[in-house]
Amino acid sequence: MFKVPKQSYTAEFKMAAVQRVKEGQGFAMVARELGMSEQTLRNWVKAEASGKLNGAGAKPVTPEQMELSRLRAENKRLQWSLRSQKKRELREGPAVRYAWIDQQVGQYPLSSLCWVLSVSVNGYRAWKRGGTPGRTRLTDTQLLTLIRTVHAEIKGAYGSPRMTEEIGDRGFPASKDREERLMREHAIRARHKRR
């Protein structure tokens, strides 16, 4: 349930709302469409039944104020609609969100669309160019096998800094700390020159 700010309504507005309820529309639906709380609408129906329904007070309501009230109600409806649309979109996968953004990007700023659907602009752009490049992150076992292979090829000459560079050049980037840890845990050391 959303909190509605306190507002003053004209007698005509109240009577129109009560009439809609009497015509068979539910309290919840009428209240949501008018941007007000359900309990207020129930109070108006009860007051109208006892003949005590009146306007917002003795001061007259200008047409600008009535238009403002109508626009506030419409704004609440649109916010609710956007919130429910966002919930539906968020239930879907990122590809559906990106496709929806792709349709709307001509009408609204890309950053705003991404913010509304909780995705990143970079993620959208990567999706647009066909996905992220095929980066391969090796598991520890695979990286260890690669380290042992390189270590044998170069006859044990490289320590962890040069090993990191060599493995990165072969197309398998990994952090120096990770390679250093694996080399230390499996006693793979660089060969030292004898003096």
UniProtKB/TrEMBL annotation:
Residues 142-195 form the HTH-like domain. Residues 162-181 are annotated as: Disordered. GO terms for biological process: DNA transposition. SUPFAM superfamilies: Homeodomain-like. Residues 163-181 have a biased composition (Basic and acidic residues). GO terms for molecular function: DNA binding; transposase activity. Pfam families: HTH_21 (PF13276), HTH_Tnp_1 (PF01527). This is Transposase and inactivated derivatives. It comes from Paraburkholderia tuberum. The lineage of its organism: Bacteria, Pseudomonadati, Pseudomonadota, Betaproteobacteria, Burkholderiales.
